[in-house]
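We emphasize that the prediction below concerns an isolated chain of 567 residues; any contacts that depend on oligomerization or on bound cofactors are therefore not represented. The input was used exactly as deposited, without trimming of termini.
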Amino acid sequence: MMMAEHFWAERTQSQHLFATGSSNLNWQQAMAQVAGLSRYLSCRSVKCASLYFDDAGYFAIALLACVKAGIDVCLLTYLSHENCCWLNKSSDILLTDVMPDKLTIPTFLPSEWSTNAPAESSRFVVHNINILLQTSGSSGIAKIIKKTWEELWLEAQTIASVLPASVLRLKPVVLGSVSVQHMYGLSFRIMLSLYLGLPIYRQRLVFPEGLLVSSSSFQRVIWVSSPTLLHTLRLSHDIKLVQGHVATIISAGGALAEKSKYFLQQHICSDVVEIYGSTETGVIAYRKEQAHWQFFQDVMHKSTVDGLIIQSPRCLPEQILADKIAEYEDGFELLGRLDRIIKLADKRISLLQLENQLMQHEWISDVHILKHPHGSHLAAWVALNHSGIHAWRQYGRKHIINQLRECLSKNHERISIPRYWRFSTVLPRNSQSKLNPVDAERVWAEPVIKPIVLHQQEITADEYLFHLQIPLDLLYFRGHFDNFHLVPGVIQLKWFIELLQQCGWLKQHPLQIENLKFQNFLRPADTVELHLKRDCVRQKITFQCIMNEKKISSGRMVIPAGTSETI
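Result of the prediction step, given as a token string:
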């Protein structure tokens, strides 16, 4: 293993350690901040520090300062009430760029670090500290996983072994859509970059547009992403911005659909690396051009009826994963989690296998299948891509369901085909490409009867703006508008009144609607602006629903005196 001390000695050049579109911080500047923060923590006898950062640069400085001072680290996935309680009990200080509430321990912000930095950084001493991470696991209940600095260093070395040497010589900037508070972001955005001496892009890029624009600012970049973001990329995005800029794409945290991988290779970057692993085990296997997964050389494994047993220098003692595999001479195939294999009518059904087949359909960008919470059949929650939305608007819900059922019936028995379907434009996965089990069950509890509020803004005391998206699976499409889905005018009025009540402008129903006009259709997946303007003197509220400068509907509501909170 490349010794850490040797690594630090090599990084004394004035190369950029952290990169943004407009500013950089070189290695010597960063290490001066590390030394100052380390000294601050040591002088206060800190034994354990919690880290919570949006900025990957500040995160890396704080982590290195703890390594230098020999201080254990707790990583918070988010600042919930439960996490703050855990933090108060387990840590002496919170290093963060976000000011949290309800903390009893001191908080130290980056704006205060520079005052404690010495003029020159001293020699870097590496302590094999413990890093505590949170992981939701399959149940959604948080677990605490302990790693050491040495294990994380070995992890970075292992990941680096599958990246092309020709790419690394160009010192590409590492950009990522995954949070550094999780094992994936920590290993791939932070540790891999430190190990290879690559510049780290400081902001997390959660939207494809941001990833494309930011990448175009650098000569060469490496993308670190979950499949959730990669599945959304399509030709309608301005992908020409990054052609020739992306050296490697690393995907982990879930299954990358074959069609998405092909799209990436054809239009963005030929070198796409998939990584299989977990927080508990670290990285286990990789796949590039091979049809089957390849175990990393230092991984020992055993496939049992209870799951896959893994052991490596990064995973001591051995861990068992609820994953089923099929082994071949040239690698192995992931068959899915054992907890995602269920029995229906005495038939064993792999939910992952069903999802994988649906993901091959040209209309699908994401899918999650489960046993219906209140029934005995399967339910499919499907996110449609641009082509799927177009087909939905042209042919209707029934046609889409029939086509997807036909797709599954080619390889699966009738009992395996979902009876219940719910459609949207995106599934609410987190940065690790996971769905909250509560969300996955809640979606079946109630029908969709309201628009999706993307953004709302109080422009003035008498002017409000809502950005709304029309749900694909709106209840009111069914029946009269079953083949050609559109939002009835009476439902639009109902929504406008409810939103007025939500922003406190209306407590009762309006007395009268004046100058009411419906000029264009409002259809599934449409994104509109709703402008509300209040005239307190005339006791009227004007509304306009606009899409791409085209007026959908408009009118005035006459409201009873005293029904608005500020009138």
